[in-house]
Amino acid sequence: MAQNFTDPQSFDRGLVLDVLSLMASGRQIRVFGNSSHGICLDGMSIAPVFDFLLRFGYIRPLQCAPGEFFGLSYGLTRKGYQFWQDGVRWWKSLSIVQRLKVRLFGSA
């Protein structure tokens, strides 16, 4: 089932959009160990949205670089890139008050 940013589903749209924006610019999610504290993107813990992104196919595991033993990397899929583009369009359609609500509460 495809998600979209206007669905009333409960996911933190602000955090998801931040994560997808960083990933669309080439950043990767790094996962170290089994703890949710080890799920990071540019030093930011993204554990609250990681499972959501993985479950809906917006991110995928990448091949480990030679000599890399202690972590997994995840990159953006085509579906994730499209979801990010939809999210940017949705974000631009919001008023300043709605954007503030998204940042504070996760939805408008």
Explain what you see.
- With about 110 residues, the protein is of the alpha+beta class.
- It has a single domain (about 15-105), classed as Winged helix-like DNA-binding domain superfamily/Winged helix DNA-binding domain (Arc Repressor Mutant, subunit A).
- Helices cover about 45% and strands about 15% of the residues.
- It contains four helices and five strands, in the order αβββαββαα.
- A five-stranded antiparallel beta sheet has the order 3-2-1-5-4.
- Helix 1 (about 15-25) packs across helix 3 (about 80-95).
- It is elongated and about 45 Å long.
- The relative contact order is 0.22.
Layout of strands and helices, then pairs:
Elements: H1 13-24, E1 29-31, E2 39-41, E3 44-45, H2 47-55, E4 59-61, E5 72-76, H3 78-93, H4 96-105
Antiparallel strand pairs: 1-2, 1-5, 2-3, 4-5
Question: Gist?
Answer:
With 108 residues, this protein is of the alpha+beta class. It contains four helices and five strands; from the N terminus they run αβββαββαα.
Task: List the strand order in the largest sheet.
Answer: 3-2-1-5-4
What percent of residues are in strands? 5-15%
CA-to-CA gap between the ends?
22 Å
The level-1 CATH class: Mainly Alpha
What is the tally of beta strands?
A: 5
The total of helices stands at 4
Give me some keywords for this one.
single chain, 108 residues, alpha+beta, Arc Repressor Mutant, subunit A, five-stranded antiparallel beta sheet, 4 helices, 5 strands, elongated
